[in-house]
TrEMBL record:
Residues 179-277 form the HTH araC/xylS-type domain. Coiled coil: none annotated. It comes from the Bacteria. Keywords: DNA-binding, Transcription, Transcription regulation. GO terms for molecular function: DNA-binding transcription factor activity; sequence-specific DNA binding. InterPro entries: Homeodomain-like_sf, HTH_AraC, HTH_AraC-typ_CS, RmlC-like_jellyroll, RmlC_Cupin_sf, Tscrpt_reg_AraC-type_HTH. This is AraC-like DNA-binding protein. PANTHER family: ARAC-FAMILY TRANSCRIPTIONAL REGULATOR (PTHR43280), TRANSCRIPTIONAL REGULATOR MTLR (PTHR43280:SF27). It comes from Saonia flava. Gene3D superfamilies: Homeodomain-like (1.10.10.60), Jelly Rolls (2.60.120.10). Pfam families: HTH_18. The keyword DNA-binding applies.
Length: 280
């Protein structure tokens, strides 16, 4: 059964260790989950807005990225299904991947890279087998799949670190006004910017910028800006031991009280409680 993105899906809800066939669709909002995501396209192409840039993933290519970065399909070439693997953050860290590779992944550098398997037919067969076996209620098969996916990702990391000629950089696509707003916020959210600064950057009146942005993303610019700051703070809380105060200011908030109130608004918990639950 093909999966499609659920627009009502809870933000940051994990998928778990999965390998499934997905039906491409335009996403009305970004998805976010604290897992590594691998997409492989046997056919067709996808255009993603990942964090702050737009990329086209072509037929026969694979992309690996940290799915805590907001990612959103904004275009696709046909209805051909594509493979999606999700790997829990804790599982990934237990695999002892090269530190340099993980650093690139968590900085978002791999969102701009795709890899083309040398044997697309074999790659497609492997992904299909994982999808079939992970959906069975058999723990032994699930453990075997986990080991195979670990080895597959280690090969990907090895090629990334030692054979950069096999990694293809994807050129950014032109983006429209709404996407320019999202990109500007993604690049500047931890600076003391306001709605008027965002509108000025894309040469629009603030009211009009808000109207077209909310129509496209379902958020006001102000709420989206605050959410990006909270999202960044969550990443820092989960993977570093930096003080909550320093994280608050680094995320773009000008006071601890404002940070705590906004964090609770978007997370239904305090920063301290979030760190206790999700820190790795």
């Amino acid at each position: 059964m093909l999966k499609k993105f659920d627009e009502n899906r809870q933000d940051l809800k994990p998928y778990g260790l999965t390998c499934e066939l997905w039906q491409p669709k335009i996403m009305e909002r970004p998805d976010r989950h604290n897992e590594i995501e691998i997409n492989y396209l046997p056919e067709g192409s996808l255009s993603y807005l990942i964090h702050d840039q737009k990329f086209k993933i072509k037929k026969g290519r694979m992309i690996v990225f940290w799915a805590l970065f907001p990612h959103q399909i904004v275009d696709f070439s046909n209805d051909a299904p594509y493979h999606v693997i999700t790997i829990p953050f804790s599982t990934l860290l237990s695999w002892n991947l090269p530190k340099r590779f993980l650093d690139m992944l968590f900085r978002g550098e791999l969102k701009a890279t795709t890899y083309k398997p040398s044997n697309p037919v074999l790659a497609n067969q492997i992904f299909k087998r994982w999808a079939n076996e992970l959906n069975r209620d058999t723990e032994v098969l699930k453990e075997i799949c986990s080991l195979e996916i670990e080895a597959y990702l280690k090969r990907f990391a090895y090629r990334t670190m030692n054979a950069t000629s096999s990694i293809e950089k994807v050129e950014p696509l032109p983006i429209n006004l709404v996407e320019k707003i999202a990109v500007y916020i993604a690049k500047n959210f931890n600076s003391p910017i306001k709605v008027i600064d965002v509108a000025k950057a894309v040469e629009l009146h603030p009211d009009y910028a808000n109207v077209i942005f909310k129509k496209a993303f379902g958020y006001t610019i102000s709420d989206y800006l605050l959410e990006q700051r909270v999202l960044y703070a969550k990443r820092k809380l989960s993977i570093t031991q930096d003080s909550i105060t320093s994280i608050a200011y680094e995320s773009g908030f000008n006071s601890i009280s404002r940070f705590n109130a906004t964090f609770r608004k978007f997370s239904d918990m305090t920063p301290r409680d979030f760190r206790k639950e999700f820190s790795t």
